[in-house]
Amino acid sequence: RGDGYGSRGALIVLEGLDRSGKSSQCRMLLSYLEGLGHSAELWRFPDRSTSVGKMINEYLSDKSQLDDHTIHLLFSANRWEKRSLMETKLKMGTTLIIDRYSYSGVVFSSAKGLDFEWCKTPEIGLLAPDLVVYLDILPEKAAERAGYGGERYEQLEFQKKVSQCYKLLSDFSWEIIDACQSMEDVGKQIKEIVLDQVMACKKGKPLSNLWP
Ligand code: NYM
Ligand code: MG
């Protein structure tokens, strides 16, 4: 409806270690929601298409070196540059499925040793997700999966630290799903909880900001 009265889309975030299966699950979720006739889009962070995103991409592919604080703020800026479009889409009734969000921002930087609270600060005021789905996998298992090791951060020892930081940041509201199950089983569980949120948002659940 786009009138802001009880018809907004849901903000759904998928988080997890590299190779936990987020991107595949996001795609499956998108076609599921579209198949049910819901308006939905799949977004991802970092969004490498913007000029900030291009700097992030160079850093991740080891073509540039940046101070840890600087890259942290770039990741955050990359979310801020999408905030108003995000709000517009949600208010128009489109559900957004997001592959990584502020949580990745906090855990990857704090895993390097940056102060946890400092890492959270630039995220204040971004839209809070209606649901965070965490694809839980042991770092050792993720490392066995194909495609691992191509980018900065995709190293077992570092991912172990990231995993611990996710555990510090997560709270009771997150949906933790065992990512070692088959893709279909993981998908089935995600679909159910996401649909609940989509319906709750349609009925007028209010939007809020980080950090709740
Ligand atoms: N990453 C992602 C961060 O360090 N901070 C952030 O804010 C975000 C969104 O970028 N290893 C890291 C996590 C990943 C890497 O993401 C690239 P992806 O989803 O593998 O393209
Ligand atoms: Mg990756």
What does this structure look like?
The chain is of the alpha/beta class and 212 residues long. It has one domain (11-202): 3-Layer(aba) Sandwich (Rossmann fold), CATH 3.40.50.300. Helices cover 48% and strands 12% of the residues. The protein has eight helices and five strands. The chain has helices at residues 22-35, 51-60, 68-91, 102-110, 116-120, 139-144, 156-169, 183-202; strands at 11-16, 40-44, 95-99, 131-136, 175-178. The chain has a five-stranded parallel sheet, sandwiched between helices. The radius of gyration is 17 Å and the shape is globular. 36% of the residues are buried. The model has no long low-confidence stretch (mean pLDDT 96). Bound molecules: 3'-deoxy-3'-aminothymidine monophosphate and magnesium ion. Residues 18, 151 line the site of magnesium ion (MG). Magnesium ion binds next to loops.
| Count of beta strands | 5
The tally of domains stands at 1
User: What is the residue-averaged pLDDT?
Assistant: 96
Bound molecules: 3'-deoxy-3'-aminothymidine monophosphate, magnesium ion
Low-confidence stretches: none
CATH architecture: 3-Layer(aba) Sandwich
Q: What's the alpha carbon Rg, rounded to whole Å?
A: 17 Å
Q: Would you state the CATH class? A: Alpha Beta
Q: How widely separated are the two ends? A: 27 Å
CATH superfamily annotation: P-loop containing nucleotide triphosphate hydrolases
What class do helices, strands and sheet pairing give? alpha/beta
What characteristic shape results from the CA principal axes?
Answer: globular
Share in β-strands: 5-15%
How many DSSP helices?
8
Remind me, CATH topology? Rossmann fold
Please bin the fraction of helical residues.
40-55%
Biggest beta sheet attributes: 5 strands, parallel
Strand order of the largest sheet: 2-3-1-4-5
N-to-C order of helices and strands? EHEHHEHHEHHEH
Family: Belongs to the thymidylate kinase family.
EC number: 2.7.4.9
Pathway: Pyrimidine metabolism; dTTP biosynthesis
GO molecular function, one term: dTMP kinase activity
